[in-house]
Amino acid sequence: MCNLMVFSLKIPAVMEVQMAGGLAAKRGGGLPKLRELLRRQRRDSDSQNDSPDLEFEYDDANKYTQEIAELYSYTEEPEFALCQKCFEEDFHSYIKEKWTQLSPDRQRMHILRLLNSVESAKREQRMKSARAVLYLAQGCFSECSSEEEQVKRARENCFLLYECSVFNTFVELLSMEAENSVAASTALRKPAVSIVDSTDLRIVLSVLYIMIETLRMDSDQDSDKQKHQREIFKTELGQPVCGEDSLAIVLFNMVTKFCSGHAPHFPIKKILLLLWKTLLFSLGGINEYKLMKQQARKAADLDAVKEDTIQVTKTMRASSPPASSGDGLQERRTRGSLRRNGIDEPMPEDPDRREEESKEEQLNGGSEEEEENSSQPPPTPREHKALPWTPKVRQKDLDVFLDHTRRKFVGFQVQSDSDTLAGLPQPIHEGVHVLKKHVYVSLAEIQIKQEEQINKNPISKGEENIPATATELLYQAVLPNLPQYMISLLKILLAAAPTSKAKTDSINILADVLPEEMPITVLQSMKLGVDVNRHKEVIVKSISALLLLLLKHFKLNHVYQFEFMSQHLVFANCIPLVLKFFNQNIMAYISTKNSINVIDFPLCVIGDQPELTAESLEAGDTIPYCWRNLFSCINLLRILNKLTKWKHSRTMMLVVFKSAPILKRALKVKQAMMQVYVLKLLKVQTKYLGRQWRKSNMKTMSAIYQKVRHRLNDDWAYGNDMDARPWDFQAEECALRACVDRFNTRRYDQCTPKDPEYQPVDNNPQSVLSQKMELSEEFQRFYEVWLDREVFTTQINWDLLLKDKICT
């Protein structure tokens, strides 16, 4: 019996030894495969992370030469020689010297002579002289030997053209051509509109664009007279030039007319570029906006803003893109298999296997890890380990914090009191001190409070001094038709987006790029394909920059002007449109360069021109991104941020349209500024995405913590926001719209009658008796009867009447 028990005890021991040996064998066979799998995954992720940061510098616009080159499509290349011919035929008919050899006075005389011809009633003579003026604005490129010389000559000529009032003449010519019903009806009758139908408009728009873009750029070599001329020109751009409309309103109306289908021949790219640069020059760019904001905050007794987003993001390093869902799933499976196999612990290595691996590595010239280490670039300097932004707190957040703590520790609330801390523990005192230290009061809060005071006290505070700034004049001009303007711009943006499909009811934005005769060779087809894509990219760039510029300046001028424009953008489906734009391979969109450098202006007209081949079409610079596409993406992200900031209903739109995976793909672009705005959009909707999303996207959550500004008591990573109540979303938008409508009615609607309680009363007897009263026909007919009955035949005891009056 004892032997049997001993035998039965030995069997499990033997089985354990055999099982351990089998498991070791399995480990030995499966471990190299797992090592190879992990090594491959690490190599793939390193290849993604090793891509360098894009050295992109955000600005108001690209370099001057690039902005001028994007004005022209490649289909317009033959027209440069035609402009030169028109100028030289007229110029050399009575002058033998070159243009650059003339004195400034003789140059002005010739410009005035051209202006007389521009005002001619004959179209052929008028457009021939307009082409000659365009050649002057282009810098007389036939007399230039380099691009730098052409830029210099163009600047000198543009100042001369401005002195001779060419700009005002061409604005009137633009207004006349825009109202040309003959050209519009001709284009409507044609089955396909081409670039030929917009020839006259393109000449006029090109002259205006070159003058504005040239004078917009400041130069250290400008004289005091030229600097003064630039300031006068900047002021004139916001003033009425055609009747009561400024140039910007004329262009806005042209955009609306184009989208309505009444003028399909309009060169929409040139119109949008001119509209953008007109507003950019008249309202002010980044530096002017920063200065105006500091002045406005100083006037409101607020602290100056010490941090600038553009400057802060310049010092940031871009984060590595988060792994895709497939990579994360494979990594979790690998971890699970490791845990199930029980090999979380490091394995004792087999000495024979180690010797074999070392011999193979010596024969193969080293391991893959050594090769990777040897090919790695030198280590970059370590970043300063600190958050890039100073935290902010709203006064509303401080009040909510105090109400919550008082209700918890004291049992009652104290309205509109953020100083009394009686009964609260010492840690709460310290917390309130920290919050007060980081309270940030925005201009919008001050403006909203002022508007509330005016509505409460319309008599004492109703009079408001409205400064006639460029932004204020623009808002007053666009206010009646702003919804139509926003819808038209978004329609064009939708048609130009790379993700939009061609539809029969969509507008044709290619009228000013398609030639009259379609290409017949492969090279011409390739050139036209590049031209069409470039045309769409420039349109996206101009619309995105234009919308962002308007939003920024309207918000600075008055927050309700900004909210009025924002609401109409939201109502026109701007949020899903921008998300649709980003629902593509955004890395491919940013890195694709649809440009042909050898035929860009002015390279295509200076010196000997090389023959255009398929290789020259693909040749380009070594920059790994397209400036205008990255610029457009950042602008659209900034627009999306401005529309959704502190708006829970619009944030829920981001969640409903499933923007999180779309925005996560945009993080693959290793550019710090773009990543900051993507992370901001992800941060505001994190609380709605659920715990599982936050758990599986910890790398993104870490990037948000590192790069986005902190609100000290904002539970963005959890979901404890008391303001995020979905049943209040519609009420929030309705309340905002009521405030905006009240603001517009009070400040700008002069036709709406005011409340009679607040109307002034005329108490002068002479003026009251002298007013003409409208009497009915019945009263006039029976007036004598009434007079006899009520006055003559009635006896009045005046003493009794006066006595009763005194007694009362």
UniProtKB/TrEMBL annotation:
<dbReference type="InterPro" id="IPR012486">
    <property type="entry name" value="Far11/STRP_N"/>
</dbReference>
<dbReference type="Pfam" id="PF11882">
    <property type="entry name" value="DUF3402"/>
</dbReference>
<comment type="similarity">
    <text>Belongs to the STRIP family.</text>
</comment>
<feature type="domain" description="Far11/STRP N-terminal">
    <location>
        <begin position="51"/>
        <end position="364"/>
    </location>
</feature>
<feature type="compositionally biased region" description="Polar residues">
    <location>
        <begin position="312"/>
        <end position="323"/>
    </location>
</feature>
<dbReference type="InterPro" id="IPR040185">
    <property type="entry name" value="Far11/STRP"/>
</dbReference>
<protein>
    <recommendedName>
        <fullName>Striatin interacting protein 1</fullName>
    </recommendedName>
</protein>
<feature type="compositionally biased region" description="Basic and acidic residues">
    <location>
        <begin position="350"/>
        <end position="362"/>
    </location>
</feature>
<dbReference type="InterPro" id="IPR021819">
    <property type="entry name" value="Far11/STRP_C"/>
</dbReference>
<feature type="region of interest" description="Disordered">
    <location>
        <begin position="312"/>
        <end position="391"/>
    </location>
</feature>
<feature type="domain" description="Far11/STRP C-terminal">
    <location>
        <begin position="425"/>
        <end position="783"/>
    </location>
</feature>
<dbReference type="GO" id="GO:0005829">
    <property type="term" value="C:cytosol"/>
</dbReference>
<dbReference type="GO" id="GO:0007010">
    <property type="term" value="P:cytoskeleton organization"/>
</dbReference>
<dbReference type="Pfam" id="PF07923">
    <property type="entry name" value="N1221"/>
</dbReference>
